[in-house]
Amino acid sequence: MTVTLPELKKGFEGTGYICDESTALTVYLTLQLQKPLLIEGAPGVGKTEMGKVLAEILQTDLIRLQCYEGLDETKALYEWNYQRQLLRIQMNRNLEDGQVKEEDLFSKQYLMERPLLKAIQAEERPVLLIDEVDKCDPEFEAFLFEVLSDFQVSIPELGTIRAHQIPVVVLTSNNERELSDGLKRRCLYLYLDFPTVEDEVQIIKAKVPAAADRLAWDMARVVARLRRAGDLRKKPSIAETLDWARALVALDRNRLDGKVAGETLNLVLKTRADQEYFNEEIGPEGIEKILRQGKDGGEATRCR
Amino acid sequence: MPLKEKFSQGHLAENLVTFTNLLRKEGITISTAETMDAFSALQQIEISDREDFKTALQAALIKNRRDHDCFNHLFDYFFAPPEIRNREEHKAAIYKKEYEAGLDRAVRELTFKGESLALSPAELAQYNNMTSDQRERLQAFMHKTETGVNVEERFRPILETVVKSHLRYCRTNQNREQHENKNSDGDYLGDVPGGSGSGSGSGRAALSEVDIQAITAGELPEAEQLLQRLSKKLAVQILRRRRTGPRSGPIDLRRSLRDNMRYGGIIFKLKHRPKRRNREQIVLLCDVSASMKQYSTFVLQFMHGLRESVRDLSCFSFSDNLENITPELKKRGGLQQLLDRVIRCSDTWGGGTNIGLSVRALMDKYPDLLGGRTSVIVVSDTRTISLDSAVKELSKLGDRVKRIVWLNPLPREQWSEYRSVESVSKLVEMWPCNTIAQLEAVLSGRL
Fold it and tell me: Is A79 in a helix, a strand, or coil?
């Protein structure tokens, strides 16, 4: 499963994941050095998508571990199937030699593999996506970086299980809390920013081919302007832009104007405060102005 | 390939180690393992491509977005074409020479009865940074003191104290100006290849690390955006739904039995009662005297972002009197309107400071706000009139509330210079808070 840099770039193109050269190179280095990749960035810039796309490019399984507060080893690594063990004990009671040996009960058939163990035991090198790692507890994070550095797990009843293949590990973080130095040290680092207007147009056209050119440009400009607005509680993500594009295509629109934008903007602005902000500060007139400026080339293309 | 040959000969390895040392001197933490990763990364790419080379180093060495600017600056300097590098080194050498000459001159000029005053290198450097007028005025004062009637050797400590205070005063005044003049080159390069050693991490580019007082008018919009981002981030953390951990509270026997009925009454899974979380009441006291204005504005902006997440939040401004600004904070509308309203309506904004009187007023007028679940956060540099009364009132307040957290905008290294800081810090939990990053760190740990 060795990929060259041009192959990887081609793979990104093929899957419709638009990224710049440095992103592709960082991912390539991750694959070559067999190090985990830590991706940080605002919500909705395509961090999780990177893991999915990588699995698609490498034609391998994607194993996903969603982190949350309270996540522990039993949910992430392994757990014994107590119910099955109990049934086995009770079934054996009725047999003549009713004794059950302890090693029978703690064998692999009673082991429930969770994502980390599944990734370690996979025969083919999988992509392990550890999503929103900043949401897990620091204790779990410490445990995680031990697993990620050695790629082996010790189960007291079974012994040490070593990885057949070092998985491609992608960790994502919304930067809600600072991750430990230990974890960061073990990873290569990539910061994903919101795309430029040009890149977003490409993304819209790749994911929603039915969207007209003009519509894609108009939407990308409006979304970039919204992301620059400091008072928005939640900036529109790429996925939301795509939903908006699909909705406008369904409405048979091939360009955007203030009225249509005002009517459908609830697809990208999802809190009441943000919608109020839009109505008070930007409004349909503001959208028209943005579109006019964009047409004249007077608008900065990077969103922040 | 010549570059590859160099690589094998260790030239690049040496350069890489020097470069990582330089990054470390700017406050970026880089382990040996990361340096080795960077090394391995370089073996995987075509190192003659400058952009690829930079990306590889950045991915392996820089693990925080706010360090990117610092990295970019140092990279552009360190891996610059030879002619640019020589020019910069030449500039750095001249700067170093001038700096050392300046220190020598300061030692020669700041004397009393023919002997140099006991001043630290930082104080000597400060003397050097003063304008010629300021230096002449200070010298004239020293000369007058030295030649005065009955001036003996025992006056030396007094003179030293006066000179030190004067230098400190000038440093504070020059702070803003110096900050504006300090361009990014000077900041990052210093005496490269040795590095500037300022330990600033993301350096000038990271506004969150800059002294709030030194943030210039031009940088204010950016700083305000940063504050908004940080307070939003913190608001999300506060509001985040907490999932009850598997072993959070005491065992709930009833639920355990009921849940384990399916296993024939054998208890496999214990159920616990969730922990009770008491909602905390926050009382924020912002010193809005003239010296504290900018800090307090920033804290208010921060709290404005949190107003919907922290439900029991009361805000007061104080200088020589106390004023309740909670209604202003809770009103809808933009931040600028809030600050305008507070400044326009406030009687306390920009006055002198009397902490004792203000704390007394808080206890007398708002007794309902103070109790066992109240945390009082005070933003003040502790400088006040009638310190003894302030200490007495703070001690009383401390007995009535859960804790008092004091955010002090004075840098920690200056705390020992102020008696008020020493007295107050014995009664409260005091944290330095002169940068946005510190403000965020302290508040996120305490809300």
Answer: strand
The confidence score (pLDDT) of residue B168 equals 76
Whether omega before A167 lies within 30 degrees of 0, making that bond cis, reads no
Domain range annotation of chain B: 2-79, 89-205, 243-276, 281-446
Do residue A21 and residue B55 have CB atoms under 8 angstroms apart?
yes
Q: pTM of whole model > 0.90?
A: no
pLDDT digits (tens, 9 = 90+) for A176-224: 777 888 889 889 999 998 998 999 999 999 889 999 989 999 999 999 9
Please write the tens of the pLDDT for every residue from B323-336: 888 877 766 655 66
Structural domain containing residue A168: 5-77+114-192
Helix axes B11-25, B2-9, angle to 10 degrees: 70
Give domain B281-446's CATH architecture: 3-Layer(aba) Sandwich (3.40)
Q: Which of A6-15, B300-309, B340-349, B419-428 has the highest mean pLDDT?
A: A6-15
Where helices occur in B199-248 by DSSP H, the ranges are: 220-239
Q: B314 CA to chain A: closest CA distance, Å? A: 23
Which residues of chain B have a Cβ shorter than 8 Å from any chain A Cβ?
A: 29, 31, 33-34, 37, 40-41, 44-45, 51-52, 55-56, 58-60, 62-65, 68, 224-225, 228, 232-233, 236-237, 240, 242-246, 263-264, 266, 268, 334
Q: Do A188 and B60 touch (CB under 8 A)?
A: yes
Question: What's the structural domain count of chain A?
Answer: 2
Across the interface, do A32 and B232 touch by the CB < 8 Å criterion? no
* ipTM metric: 0.83
Mark whether A134 and A167 lie in a shared domain: yes
Tell me the chain B residues in contact with residue A136 when contact means C-beta distances shorter than 8 Å: none
Query: What distance in Å separates the CA atoms of residue A250 and residue A247, rounded to the nearest whole number?
Result: 5
Within this chain, do residues A217 and A183 fall inside the same structural domain, yes or no?
no
Same domain (yes/no): A35, A173: yes
| Cβ-count burial B207-230 (b if 16+ within 10 Å, e if not) | bbbbbbbbbeeeeeeebbebbbeb
Q: Which helix (H) or strand (E) holds B71?
A: helix B68-78
Interatomic CA distance for residues B396 and B389, integer angstroms: 11
- A191 chain-B contacts, CB cut-off 8 A: 65, 68
Given the DSSP bridges, would you call strands A37-41 and B313-318 parallel, antiparallel or unpaired? unpaired
